[in-house]
Amino acid sequence: MAYETILFDKKDGVAAITLNRPSQLNAFTAKMHEELRAALGEIAKDAEIRAVLLTGAGRGFCAGQDLQEVKPSDVEAGRDLAQRLDRNYNRLIRTLRGLEKPVLAAVNGVAAGAGANLALACDIVLAARSASFIQAFARIGLLPDSGGSYFLPRKIGEARAAALFMLGDSVSAEQAEAWGMIWKCVDDGALAGDAQALATRLAAAPTKSLGLIKRLLNASAANGLDQQLDLERDLQRIAGSSEDYREGVAAFREKRKPAFKGR
Asked: Which pTM does this prediction carry?
């Protein structure tokens, strides 16, 4: 498929997706959602792809919804935004969380609104030191969506999340790391190389195991201890029957580096 709003490349087990509307800070359009869904669908079906690297072109990661695409007549008439959420944003976040392959976000600049929450929905987030995260919804009279009200309080606590949602203040990459919002802040010049190295490392990992870890994490917030213990047991049964588990044990015994195949 030919893409207009994203760049999509596959190499050495890594699928690289670059949001590619740099003059609009990679703001979302309906077309971009369509193309992201197509790319993620291809990734889900391709057993050779074992990790995903998501970033933005230019000086921004993603500025959220492109408001130029929102018709003034729709705003005046109070058109139902829920339809746009269900059709685009909610489908995207569910797909990312349900993809049983690791997704790494390399946040290269501003991540605002749904763009910030797109990053938070990824499994691991690296951010350039100049990057920032902004829950911009209240600035235009809206409330957090794209999973923001789910992910952010769980990462940084309700008190900080409430303030960020209501005030719309910008959080630097360094502060985001200190608060546990992201995995790591790195120098701007190191971001691309560090992200590629980490994606390559993830692509060489036991993919089945990583996918099952995502299942555990998705369920842990709603489960009690007994439920989570049962889920760990059930998913460990699946992992224990994998080829990668057999390889991991063999490599440990033979004192060599494992050669996982992702199955």
From this structure: 0.93
